[in-house]
Design goal:
CATH class of one domain in chain A: Alpha Beta
Structural class of chain A: alpha/beta
Structural class of chain B: alpha/beta
Oligomer: heterodimer
Shape of chain A: elongated
Number of helices of chain A: 24
CATH superfamily of one domain in chain A: P-loop containing nucleotide triphosphate hydrolases
Number of strands of chain B: 6
Largest interface: A-B, 47 and 46 residues
CATH superfamily of chain B: P-loop containing nucleotide triphosphate hydrolases
Distance between the termini of chain B: 59 Å
Helix content of chain A: 40-55%
Shape of chain B: globular
């Protein structure tokens, strides 16, 4: 039944392991995947983790922590079995093991017997529960959980309601999808027992949803919220447009030379219908007028050093504020600790000395035995509220708080710290860990493909109006300032003015533009652009695509065709910092659609496990490895200057997609591009 | 309340207690100060064998194997010389290789007395960028550059003879990576606070043995216990 059980320390040493069946692959692979994909990614709220070995059937992993001693217990079994007793068994094992555990000892052969006994008990209890007539209290899937563990049952309730849409996602890649997916592994698979009637209901329920997938939801979002009109309207629009294309008259390209000084061009008839002014209504206005009124081609170069290359000042004075808060928080505990809050700078040092003095004498003056869930609840709730205030998506805030809570349970407080300060520290670490992703060194990779003689292709995708073209131009400027030859491919063949916008940028940046006008197939345009770039010896090709809503299936399919046809080295998702809860939806759908709707079902959406070059069949084998199992390799966070403290969108996006934030757009001129400053973002989130 | 003067016994006792506490604190700080700030760090990409090496050095046992570390391991290693006599002990710290925990590297480098970069000689190529980045961070850290902290490049998993790359190959791969990185990072110019000079002059190709603080390369097998090179490296520190 069970394949493998093991107990190990957080530091990595395995203390005890028991293998029940011989597997073709190394069982430790599953454990490593669990650690890298789930435990270290602050996804402790998920109840299970699915692992797809290269050979063999998928396995499910369940785990439990003992935070006080820093131990982890994991049980691995075949995904097709739904074993109901695993959670209970794991907690029993945890209790028993703690009795036997001695720090520094490795190898607990004597525990085998205890474990076998516990296993037999758990199995017999589960069998007995199955034989009893099952109570239907709640959605049908709830009954299948048996009477085993309450937590799993409660999760199933949550799971089936939110799982209506998650049922289609029941594959490995979706294990990262979060709480809603917790028990889907159990509900949609058949299992033993006399609940065939329920099973049929549940299965019929699932099967009827499966083929529809995204299209079935159509204009509705994840939780049934109607997506603001754009979804269905867009679908019918593009449909009609494609039919009308041959009949419509050919669009004449607008000559922008009139905007730049000198040059002949058509005098613009009124194109801006706002009350105030006339002129192009795009954000380009600022770009053109921002530099100078009489913008010329020469202006493009002399605008200055891109903020990517400027080191930001670290703000040290804010540390004093933090310490004051810490002191106030710890005020209730340890008289001398709080009493030392005389001056902000001296206080932490004195606290440190006293704390170390006390702990070195092996005295724990204050501090409870171990933190229980109830102790940290109020602090967690406070943190969640704070995160949501800072524009973190509600789902993400809940998951992060849950995961941190699980990490904290059972830990001991140090001498003079209060619960609030302790929780805050844990959050700081967790958030820094989430945001501190290893990001691709773009310049290095470009140099590598330069050496191979192939152009480095970057594709920008995102929903409408987030700033793709503007930030594309900024990145082109930054690359140009490092003596890298750039070419821009105008694959937005839909939106009016897109090609002209890029023409203007290219004129100012003195960068070649590859465009084929409007109403052309973007994938082909991109393909030809890359070929042209190779001929011309251009180093980087920046591909601009049309904005599209994440629910719009035909457009997502078109985008995934573009990506699979051209094999870009980097796919950047452009998201604006103003987005709220929709960030999660956008990214998940983009990642999912791009992998699902690819023309050949190349496993681009496979589960990301550690390193290894999975993915879109890169012939040049660049150092880009698909670490996060999605198609999107990086995030560009735009309009960062419009938010002051509400930086939560960064967290939501990184958590959902697992991709790092590679660029941050913070203004509308060419130099307004910078790297994500993780420390300041975490500080703003926790302020 | 009675007049508080220096001659009254209460005040004298109070002063004595305060003085005694302070003396005690100072003594304790001195004692703990000896332990703090001199650890040998084991760094490197995931799955290189750092935790295995750590336990092999510490007590020579790797019975059941290891999984990916989620937090650092710390311990005291008894250093033996070639004649197998204990010549001293060093504190060794095994840092997790996962990128998420990479930020800890910065803070531990400040107190490092030596660094051992553990590489997987079998899976070298997919991990070479990460390994080179780690080495880059270590070498250009201001404290490391200033103190000329000794660095050892240990190519692990040498027991898998057919699959493991040779020491020379590992060294050359890392050198090439570092070379390219040096060029791009120099071009960026945003690396304030890092001593890029520690990597030598950019016009010559980078050679690990020719750096200001030379880096030795060796091959070990933590699984099989062939860690003599590392032991010799540690012996030099004691």
């Amino acid at each position: 039944m069970l394949d493998y059980v093991l107990a190990f320390e957080r530091g990595g040493a395995i203390l005890w392991a028991l293998q029940f069946t011989s597997l073709r692959h190394n069982p430790l692979e599953a454990i490593n995947a669990l650690i890298r994909g789930c435990l270290l990614e602050e996804r402790l709220g998920d109840n299970t983790f699915t692992f797809n070995p290269k050979s063999g059937a998928p396995q499910t992993l369940k785990w439990t922590f003992h935070n006080g001693l820093g131990l982890v217990f994991v049980a691995v079994y075949q995904k097709t079995l739904s074993l109901l007793y695993v959670d209970e068994l794991l907690s029993n094992v945890k209790e028993e093991f703690v009795n036997v555990y001695k720090p520094g000892q490795r190898g607990y052969r004597q525990f085998d017997e205890t474990f076998n006994r516990l296993l037999r008990d758990a199995e017999s209890r589960a069998d007995a529960a199955k034989k009893q007539p099952v109570m239907r209290s709640g959605p049908p899937a709830n009954a299948k959980q048996g009477t085993g563990s309450q937590a799993v049952g409660a999760q199933a309730k949550k799971g089936t309601q939110a799982g209506k849409d998650a049922s289609g996602d029941d594959d490995a890649g979706a294990a990262r999808k979060g709480a809603a997916n917790g028990t889907v592994g159990n509900t949609s698979d058949g299992s033993a027992g006399g609940e065939d009637g329920d099973e049929d209901n549940v299965r019929a329920f699932d099967v009827s949803k499966l083929p529809k997938g995204m299209a079935g939801r159509g204009t509705r979002g994840v939780r049934g919220r109607p997506v603001p009109g754009a979804g269905s309207a867009k679908v019918s629009d593009t449909g009609k447009k494609k039919e009308e294309a041959p009949a419509a008259k050919v669009k004449k390209a607008r000559n922008w030379n009139t905007m730049l000084s000198g040059g002949k061009g058509d005098t613009p008839t009124r194109i801006d219908y706002t009350e105030d002014g006339d002129g192009p209504g795009t954000s380009d206005m600022d770009l053109i007028s921002g530099a100078s009124a009489s913008a010329t081609e020469d202006e493009g170069r002399g605008v200055g050093v891109s903020r990517m290359d400027v080191e930001e000042d670290e703000y040290d004075d804010s540390e004093f504020e933090d310490d004051e808060d810490l002191n106030n928080g710890a005020g209730g505990r340890g008289g001398s600790g709080a009493g030392a809050s005389g001056s902000a700078a001296a206080a932490p040092k004195k606290q440190g000395l006293l704390a170390s003095f006390v702990s070195s004498l092996a005295m724990n003056v204050v501090g409870k035995a171990a933190l229980s869930r109830a102790d940290v609840e109020p602090a967690l709730a406070e943190m969640k509220r704070k995160l949501m205030e800072r524009n973190v998506a509600e789902e993400i805030a809940a998951q992060v708080c849950d995961s941190v809570g699980r990490n904290l349970e059972g830990q001991r407080l140090a001498g003079f710290t209060g619960v609030a300060a302790f929780v805050r520290n844990a959050f700081e670490e967790a958030l820094s860990g989430i945001l501190n992703k290893r990001s691709v060194d773009v310049l290095l990779d470009i140099k590598k493909s330069q050496a191979r003689g192939k152009p480095y292709v970057i594709v920008f995708c995102g929903v409408n109006g987030v700033g793709k073209s503007t930030n594309l131009a900024k990145i082109a400027y930054w690359l140009g300032s490092h003596n890298i030859k750039v070419m821009i491919a105008a694959c937005d063949t839909f939106r009016a003015g897109a090609v002209e916008q890029l023409k203007t940028h290219c004129a100012r940046l003195r960068v070649p533009l590859y465009e084929r006008g409007y109403e052309k197939d973007p994938a082909k345009v991109a393909y030809e652009a890359v070929r042209q770039a190779e001929k011309d010896g251009v180093h980087v090709v920046l591909v601009d695509t049309a904005g599209r809503m994440q629910d719009n299936q035909p457009l997502m399919r078109a985008l995934s065709t573009l990506i699979s046809l051209n094999n870009p080295n980097l796919v950047l998702f452009v998201g604006e910092a103003l987005v709220g809860n929709d960030a999660v939806d956008q990214l998940t759908k983009f990642n999912k659609s791009l992998s699902d709707l690819a023309p050949t079902t190349a496993g681009a959406g496979g589960p990301g496990e550690g390193t290894g070059a999975v993915g879109r069949g890169q012939a040049d084998g660049s150092a880009l490895t698909r670490r996060h199992g999605g198609v999107i390799d990086g995030i560009v966070l735009t309009k960062f200057d419009t938010i002051d403290e509400k930086v939560g969108a960064a967290l939501s996006m990184v958590y959902t997609s697992g991709a790092p934030v590679m660029f941050v757009g913070c203004g509308q001129t060419y130099v307004d591009l910078k790297k994500l400053n993780v420390k300041s973002v975490v500080k703003s989130l926790l302020k | 309340m009675a007049e508080l003067s220096l001659n009254s016994p209460e005040v004298q006792i109070a002063l004595l207690v305060v003085a005694a506490t302070l003396v005690l604190l100072v003594i304790l700080k001195l004692f703990s100060g000896g332990k703090r700030g001199s650890a040998v760090l084991l760094v490197g990409p995931c799955n290189g064998g750092k935790t295995t090496l750590f336990y092999r050095l510490k007590d020579g046992s790797t019975e059941l194997g290891t999984v990916a570390s989620m937090q650092e391991n710390e311990g005291i290693v008894q250093v033996r010389n070639d004649k197998d006599r204990v010549v001293g002990s060093v504190r060794v710290m095994d840092l997790p290789g996962h990128p998420r925990l990479r930020s800890k590297l910065e803070q531990y480098l400040k107190d490092a007395s030596a660094v051992v970069l553990v590489l997987d000689s079998v899976d070298l190529t997919p991990n070479k960028t990460e390994a080179a980045e780690d080495l880059f961070e270590v070498l250009t850290h201001t404290t490391v550059a200033r103190r000329r902290t000794p660095v050892l490049l240990a190519c692990n998993k040498a027991d898998l003879e057919t699959q493991a790359h040779s020491v020379d190959f590992c060294r050359r791969t890392i050198e090439k990576q570092l070379d390219t990185m040096r060029k791009t990072r120099l071009a960026l110019g945003g690396e304030a606070g890092r001593s890029l000079a520690a990597l030598g002059k950019p016009d010559k190709p980078l050679q690990l043995a020719a750096l200001r603080s030379p880096i030795a390369v060796c091959e070990i097998s933590a699984e099989k216990g062939e860690v003599a090179e590392v032991m010799r490296f540690l012996a030099k520190l004691v």
